[in-house]
Automatic annotation (TrEMBL):
InterPro entries: Amidohydro-rel, Metal_Hydrolase. This is Amidohydrolase family protein. Keywords: Signal. It comes from Sphingosinicella microcystinivorans. Pfam families: Amidohydro_2. Residues 109-342 form the Amidohydrolase-related domain. Residues 1-28 form the signal peptide. The keyword Transmembrane does not apply.
Amino acid sequence: MIWSKWARAVRFSALAGAVLFSGGGAYAEPAPRADHHMHIQSALVTDWLQEIQKVMPAAFEGLSGDILKVRAGSDAVHELDRAGIQRGVLLSAGYMFGFSAIPLAPEEIARRMRAENRFNVDQALASNGRLVAFVGINPFLDNALGELEYWSRQPGASGVKLHLGNSGFDLGNPDQVKMLAAFFGSARKARMPLVVHLRGAAPFTNANLTTFIDTVLSEAGDLPVQIAHGGSFGGIDAATLEALRLYGDAMERKAPGTANLVLDISAVAQVDLSKLPGVPKEGLETRTPDEWRAAYVAQMRKIGMDRFVLASDWPALTPPAEYFAAERKALPVTDEEWAALCENVAPYLRTTWAAQREAVLLRP
């Protein structure tokens, strides 16, 4: 979501600058089968954001006013209908209550996290199969494993969203790496797929990403894992391309944890990092926006289009109908490649995986 993304992810590691692209016109066929990255929120998160805005007003400059509004599952379904999309993946912002800029007592964090996750799950259950819900957990909090275990037994909970920028994760911190690896292993045992926003304000080097792939992702085994924002935090820079290359190399050698690994490309093609305040501009001037996008698509082709899924990050940019119309124009893929991307669904949306989740729910 819009927290801990792009420029303000660099500055705050938790809230983000949303962007600034307004694609006009209705979306044309083919439409994606699924939007793999959407957000609704209860009054709990809405009130919390307003509190954060009081402390960090600069972090909200340029953001859509929709982030300060309650949004229900019916709103998400309405946007899916406008775009001709069958299904949407709701990523709960329950992790937000662990945001260190405004500390809460551990028991209050746990209470609010559980309530926000319940809101998302209940909204998905009420959608007649149109929506699936991932609960939001900060894996470094004391309640993390308990929250994972609880939701692994609850109907309507399809997986876990980890926003590691919001959670203050640093790949250079061995203790945090160890904790995150243990969480991945627990998610694998609980058969709870993961959607992971990895990049935040901490250094995002090749060495650190290699640590993530070799030490953390490897613990996922065959668990479906979706890396958000095309492997970065939105937009494209040299670090984004290097991350994509490293993921591709890991997939090619069939590294542990990559069997069901996909990347969603939310906020990749439409975002020009050189125009966002607070983003280091070093190296961005070496290519035009079109050249950055072409380089990204070249990596996608090398990896294989089947490893990428479409996602809007609604409401960070625009509603899905406008978002995907803009993405089709901005992403330099062929008509055949776009049609293939539209057909892609993450492994956790497939019937075989749904059966595995059902088996977990039926365990004594």
